[in-house]
Amino acid sequence: MPDLIIGGAGFFGLTIAEKAASQGYKVLVVEQRNKIGGNSASHKDSKTGIEVHTYGPHIFHTNNEIVWKYVNKFTSFIPYKHKVKTVIADGRVIPLPFGLATYSTYYNIQFTPALMDTYNGLLPANINNTFKETAISSIGEDLYREVVESYTKKHWGCDPDELPVSVIKRLPVRRTWEDGYFTDKYQGIPSNGYQTWLNKMANHPNITVLLNTNVLDFVPTNIPFVYTGALDAFFKYKFGHLGWRSIDLIESHPDTNDFQGCAQMNYADANIPYTRIHEYKHYRPDIKTIGTVIHKEYPRNTEPYETGAYPINAIQDREKLQKYREATKELKGVWLGGRLGSYKYLDMDAVIASALTLWNNKIKPYLEAQCHTV
Ligand SMILES: Cc1cc2nc3c(=O)[nH]c(=O)nc-3n(C[C@H](O)[C@H](O)[C@H](O)COP(=O)(O)OP(=O)(O)OC[C@H]3O[C@@H](n4cnc5c(N)ncnc54)[C@H](O)[C@@H]3O)c2cc1C
């Protein structure tokens, strides 16, 4: 009998599994896919040997010292600074995130921070602003229409104003020439790949992994249980289906050594059905490879009962979400977490940080108390 069952082998589940196992608890990890790793999983492309991020591109970045120390127990990182460009409707390529280079390229004049403010300041920031108002107050109307509006509609499949304002607040806006997408202290790609890192976390004699199995088919009643799948699925959709968005990644091997000269190119034009093209070899400039492999990313709504990649959290989701969150608080010896279980857009470092916190504050004391009462 395991001391703890974990449903889902992404970073959230594996962090808790690893912490519990290293303290002597027997852990059963149940994963519905045929391999561990969740959305951060990777594999070697059979034609080129390039590491492909199976479910879409992943760049590790964090300012959290505790998380950084923890992840370095399992992997080293090669430094990588992510840069993103976007193709707009007239075919020009402009740099993201929004900064002096974006404005200068778009308007074809030299921008200064003060000039940027005059273009953006037409709609003052206000705490009650909608998504559109927040976007226009921070980047101006032209760049909103050109870069954000149709891309957001493509990615989320809804009007931007149906989305929480937090989505647009994640987009960095800088009054500098800094062209790195992230500004975190630590940024990189795992030296031996994501899958090696994830496998190492699960590789402990106290951890048993059961693949191709839906943990909800045998939710344990008497064993402490961590669930990292979709929040609405856990409760059998009793308050209704939450909105989830997915992506299809269409893979190809263009007949060249370098397809686009960078890892990520966005397509803001509404007439282009995909949102991004990823060329994975650019995440590893230290490895020379012949040929290339790309993914074109096509967003779509999830099928009913399908596990989605992104929680939408649109206006119509919020009442249901509140009910699910209340129901979660009633659970005893069962914890929901991670990106799907919390129905929150969380990066890898945030997922690992929240798993470490849940372990320290709730699960570890619970297991210790159980041992004392047995
Ligand atoms: C396209 C894309 C790009 C991203 N890029 C970045 C990035 O650059 N940097 C970054 O920091 N983060 C990025 N992320 C976020 C990152 O993927 C997540 O932070 C991380 O994967 C979350 O880990 P998790 O364990 O919470 O969830 P997941 O990785 O989704 O793992 C959950 C696991 O639970 C399994 N599961 C679900 N239901 C069940 C069930 N009923 N029974 C058994 N198993 C179940 C799933 O199959 C899955 O393996 C990206 C996400 C996506 C989708």
Enumerate the strands of the largest sheet in spatial order, edge to edge or round the barrel: 8-7-13-14-15-12-16
What is the typical, i.e. mean, pLDDT? Answer: 93
Tell me the overall shape. globular
Total strand segments = 17
β-strand amount: 15-25%
Kindly name the structural category.
alpha/beta
The N- to C-terminal Cα distance equals 14 Å
- CATH hierarchy, class of the largest domain: Alpha Beta
Characterization of the model:
- The model has no long low-confidence stretch (mean pLDDT 93).
- The protein is α/β, with parallel strands linked by helices and 374 residues long.
- It has 2 domains: 4-82 and 186-373, Rossmann fold; 84-169, no CATH class.
- The chain has 12 helices and 17 strands.
- Helix 1 (11-22) packs parallel to helix 12 and helix 5 (131-139) crosses helix 6 (141-156).
- The chain binds flavin-adenine dinucleotide (FAD).
- The site of flavin-adenine dinucleotide has 36 residues, from helix 1, helix 11 and helix 12.
Keywords:
374 residues, Rossmann fold, seven-stranded mixed β-sheet, five-stranded parallel β-sheet, globular, binds flavin-adenine dinucleotide
